[in-house]
Each structure stands twice: as C-alpha cells, then as structure tokens.
Amino acid sequence: MTPRHPVYVLDGNHFAGRIMGPDLHCDVAIIGAGTAGISAERSARRQGAQTLLIDPHFAGTVCARIGCMPSKLLIAAAQAAHGARTAGPFGIRGGEVRVDGAAVMRRVRALRDEFVAGVKDSFEALPDGTTVKAAAHFTGPNYMTLDDGRRLSARAFVLATGSHPAVPDAFAALGDRLETNQTIFERETLPESLAVVGGGPLGLELAQAMARLGVEVTVLEASDRLAGIADRQLATNFYDRLSTEMTIHLKAEVTPRRVDDGVVLEWAGGSLKAERVLLAIGRPPSLEGLHLAAAGLTLKENGVPDYDPRTLRCGKSAIFIAGDMTGERPLLHEASAEGTIAGANAADPDHTAPSHRLVPFSMAFTHPGVVSIGEVADRADARTVVGYADFGTQGRARVENLNVGGALLYAEPQTGRLIGALLVAPMAEHLGHLLAWAIEAGETAPTLLDRPFYHPTYEEGLKSALRDICQALENGVPKDRDDWDRPGDHSDG
Ligand SMILES: Cc1cc2nc3c(=O)[nH]c(=O)nc-3n(C[C@H](O)[C@H](O)[C@H](O)COP(=O)(O)OP(=O)(O)OC[C@H]3O[C@@H](n4cnc5c(N)ncnc54)[C@H](O)[C@@H]3O)c2cc1C
Ligand SMILES: NC(=O)c1ccc[n+]([C@@H]2O[C@H](COP(=O)([O-])OP(=O)(O)OC[C@H]3O[C@@H](n4cnc5c(N)ncnc54)[C@H](O)[C@@H]3O)[C@@H](O)[C@H]2O)c1
C-alpha cells in the first residue's frame, strides 16, 4: 500500500532514502534542472541538505541543448569556411569553398547531443529519488503543487526556471517560417536567406555564422547600435566590420508578414523578403505557471521576486532564486555561481551569508569579439581615467590579418585601479579573461604594466591602454618600465 505520508529510511543516524508517498517533503526543493538548478542542488546537498530537483522535462540544460554549445558549434563550422575563403592575402590559393549545409547541421547536432547526454548522465548519477519529473507551482510560502497532483513541502526552495525567447504575436503568426534558438539547431540544412531580428549577442553570433556559411543574412536592430556597445567609436568599428559580411539596418523596428514563399519585413524606410526569420530580441525570465503571488513574495515590475543579489534570497522568505530567472545576468557562469550561492543558503535559510559577486563579464563570440567587463561607458562620457589600445594597427593582429577594433580600459583616477574594460577586438574572449581576472584581483595599470608581456602577442597590444592610464596618474609610467614601440606595431606608444 502506498503510504499516505513520505516514509524516511534511516541508515544508522543518516538519511538514506525515502519511499515516495503521494506527497513529497525535503529540506531544499530546486525548481528547474538547468545550469542554475543543477548547481543549486549540488551545493545544497554538499551542505548536508536533503534535496529534490524538479523539472517537467530533464531534457538537458538550455546551454547544452539550444544555447551556448550548439551556437558555438555553428560558429566553429563558419570559422572553418571563412578561414578557407580568406586565405588569399597570405598567398594561399584554394579552390571554391562549398558548404554542405546538411553536413554542417549534422555535426552541430551530433556534438550537441553528446553534450546533452553528459548532462543527462549527471541526473542519473544523483542519489536515488532526487529527481522529480513535474512542473511545480506555489500554493503557499512553503508549499508547491506538482502538475501530477502531488503536494511538495520544503524548508526552502530555489527557483531556477530560466528564460525563454520573446516572441510577439506578429512573429508567432509566421508559423514555421519563424526560427528562434529553440528551433534553428534542428534545421536539416541551411536556408538560402535569413532575416535576423535583434542585434544582441544571440542574433549576431548566429547571423555571422550563417553569413560565413553562405546564407544571405540581413540584421535588423531596433536601437542605434549593435550588441549594446557602450562606446560609439567601437560600436561604429564593429558595425563597419560586420557590414562587410551581411546587410545591417539599425533603428529598424520591423513588422513581419508571411507570404507564400517566405516572409516580408517592413520598417520605416525599408522592406525585405527572406526565406526565414530568426527572432533574437531578448529572453525574458520564465515565470509563467509558478503562481509566485501565492508564495507571498514581493514582485518587481517585471514579475521577478525582489531578491538580494548577494544571498539570492527573496525578501525574508525561505525562497531563493538563481540563473536567467533573475533577469539580471543571463549568462552561464552566473547561472552556475548563483545556483551555488542560492543552494548553500537554502540549506540553512536561518543563517544566510552574503557572497562576493563576480565583476559583470559578458561577451559575444563574433569576429571581432565584443567583451564588456565591469563599469564601461562611451569614452567621452567616462568619469574614470580611460586608456585606449588600437587593434586596427596592432602588430600581431596585422600579422594574422585580424586587425580591427580596439580596447578601452577604465581606471580609478587616484590609483589607476582597473574597474572596467570594453573590447571590440580579435581574440577578445582571451584578452577579456585576462582583464576580468585583473579587475577581480584589484590590479592597477602600473602593476599590470609590471607584468611580463611576450612579443609578439595580442596581449602586448593592451600596453598602450595601460600606459595611457599611467600617464594620467600622478607618478606617470613607472620609470623602470620600457616605453618603446614594438616592431610592426604603429599604435603602441
Ligand atoms: C543561443 C544561446 C546562446 C548562448 N550562449 C551563451 C554563451 O556563449 N555563454 C554564456 O555564458 N551564456 C550563453 N547563453 C546563456 C546561457 O545559456 C543561460 O544563461 C543559461 O543556460 C541559463 O541557465 P538557467 O539554469 O538559468 O536556465 P535553463 O538552463 O533554461 O534551466 C531552466 C530549467 O527550468 C525548467 N522549468 C521551467 N519552468 C519550470 C517549472 N514551472 N517547474 C519546474 N521546472 C521548470 C526548464 O525545463 C529548464 O530545465 C546563451 C543562450 C542562448 C539562448
Ligand atoms: N555569448 C554569450 O554569452 C551569449 C550568446 C547568446 C545569448 N546570450 C544570452 O542570451 C540572452 C538573449 O540574447 P539576445 O541577444 O536575444 O538578447 P539581448 O537583450 O542581449 O539583445 C536583444 C537585441 O534585440 C534588440 N531588439 C529588441 N526588440 C527589438 C525589435 N522589436 N526589433 C529589433 N530589435 C530589437 C535590442 O535592442 C537588443 O540589441 C542574453 O541576455 C545573453 O546574455 C549570451
């Protein structure tokens, strides 16, 4: 007979498992088995909590399935095609580059499936009874009900339901002519033409990849710049470079219309027809169906519970929040960090401790890459000291024929301590890591200039920005540091 209440099995003094009754109870219930939820479960369990991880699908994380990984796989294929096509300046003459779209998509899905399988294996490896396949909604501050009718009570909850693509009705009406990140990686082959609506990281990464794979791509961005780049000159550099590979319209708010053989998009001053549309205008937090009001939480205007970013706790409740659901830092490393903090605090909600939050660090894996770290602004408006390194003329970038863009470093006027960096540059993902780590470590421009810089490297390019900052400080460039231009580097100095 199924017990009316959960029965706990004890092994000595330790909890060893449970026999499920119609209702469920645990110390920490984690709602959503994505990156943030998986981290939260692991973190709470590490603190000795008995956990339940609840998700209606357990399909694998957004990152592995329809996010970071398949998008980078598509970009990798595009890079291979681009490299073969652009070898001419090095004196390399290849034949015509032909892209086998079906083979490209097969590789994307094959490796994607391996990444997803890895996530699913991690669910299998959890202690018995930890995963519960269901959607959950609140019926009170300490209670949820599952869509299979079971009731769930917990001492604390971690909400980690992620985000989803924004799809206004006019775009939904395009039916199967509309692509989002949820559908595009399932395509058997590549379209002839693609209109990408939204010039943020998601839209641009996929737009450039598609263009390099031979798709005729047009990007339509509502604002006056791509990827929200805070500095106007870098935004223009980026726009100019990307415009050599695809058509881009800024300040274009489009109205879509389905026609027999595609989609027509119209905006003030223009129109176009494309085979398909990729919509990438943002990913709002997934809150639907959670009945957050029943949990007694104070909700912000966007419907997300008010929470403390250092504890991830919602008000004074025993409810914590993590990942894209917060609507604040929708990135993989933040989802993982937030899940860990939220899980640890949920394990002992009476003694929550504030955690250090990492410097904001985001990037777009375009070429050139775009990186934003910490406090950034247009160089004309910055209230900090600003140093600039030009990668349009930098030696190593010229060697590789990747010379474009630049790096802005922002520092405290008194000390030269770095507080921000903005890059539109080759190898931006690697330079960005160096700078993010330097900022986290509290490095100043003079101390960084005192580090070894190998020649000829991209890192060396940052020296001119560091010197700019030193020159604005009282003591100038340290007198025992060299100040010379490297061979082939017209910008350094
Ligand atoms: C195309 C694309 C490319 C990206 N590229 C990068 C990148 O290169 N680098 C980077 O850092 N970030 C990238 N991101 C962002 C990154 O993928 C997300 O920040 C991260 O995956 C968010 O993790 P999460 O745990 O918050 O959400 P998810 O992984 O989406 O997990 C949410 C889970 O909640 C479940 N759920 C929803 N509702 C309920 C409910 N009512 N009850 C129970 N469970 C529920 C869902 O089924 C899902 O499993 C990309 C995103 C996209 C879309
Ligand atoms: N490399 C990465 O880390 C990476 C890559 C892809 C996605 N992501 C994450 O996924 C999330 C979603 O990405 P995203 O690029 O969709 O969102 P986003 O909010 O970053 O960018 C959306 C863009 O669409 C524009 N826009 C909004 N409404 C529009 C409209 N009606 N018409 C035309 N343009 C419009 C916005 O001005 C903005 O430039 C991001 O928050 C990002 O953190 C990260």
Outline the structure in words.
By secondary structure, this protein is an alpha/beta fold. It folds into three domains: 7-56 and 134-164 and 284-351, FAD/NAD(P)-binding domain (3-Layer(bba) Sandwich); 169-279, FAD/NAD(P)-binding domain (3-Layer(bba) Sandwich), CATH 3.50.50.60; 361-471, FAD/NAD-linked reductase, C-terminal dimerisation domain (Enolase-like, domain 1), CATH 3.30.390. 28% of the residues lie in helices and 23% in strands. It has twelve helices and 22 strands. It has helices at 35-46, 62-66, 68-85, 101-124, 169-172, 201-212, 232-243, 332-347, 395-399, 428-440, 445-449, 463-472, and strands spanning 7-11, 14-19, 24-31, 51-55, 131-133, 136-140, 143-146, 151-159, 178-179, 193-197, 216-220, 247-249, 255-259, 262-267, 270-274, 276-279, 319-321, 361-364, 369-374, 385-390, 406-411, 418-425. Helix 3 packs antiparallel against helix 4 (101-124). The longest helix has 24 residues, at 101-124. Mean pLDDT is 93; it is low at 1-21. Flavin-adenine dinucleotide (FAD) binds at residues 31-37, 54-57, 61-63, 67-68, 71, 135-136, 160-162, 181, 202, 286, 289-290, 323-325, 330-333, 335, 365.
Short recap of the structure:
With 493 residues, this protein is of the alpha/beta class.
Total domains, how many?
Answer: 3
Highest-level CATH class of the largest domain: Alpha Beta
If you average the pLDDT, what whole number results?
Answer: 93
> Which kinds of small molecule does this entry bind, naming each only once?
flavin-adenine dinucleotide, nicotinamide-adenine-dinucleotide
- Count of individual beta strands: 22
Shape estimate: globular
By CATH, the architecture of the largest domain is named 3-Layer(bba) Sandwich
How far apart the termini lie comes to 81 Å
Quote the beta fraction: 15-25%
Could you give me the name of the CATH homologous superfamily of the largest domain? FAD/NAD(P)-binding domain
Using only C-alpha atoms, the radius of gyration works out to 25 Å
Structural class: alpha/beta
In the predicted model, the low-confidence regions spanning at least 5 consecutive residues are 1-21
CATH topology of the largest domain, which one? FAD/NAD(P)-binding domain
Share in helix? 25-40%
| Number of contiguous helices | 12
GO molecular function: flavin adenine dinucleotide binding; NAD(P)H dehydrogenase (quinone) activity
Cofactor: FAD
Binding site for NAD(+): 198-205, 221, 282
Disulfide bonds: 63-68
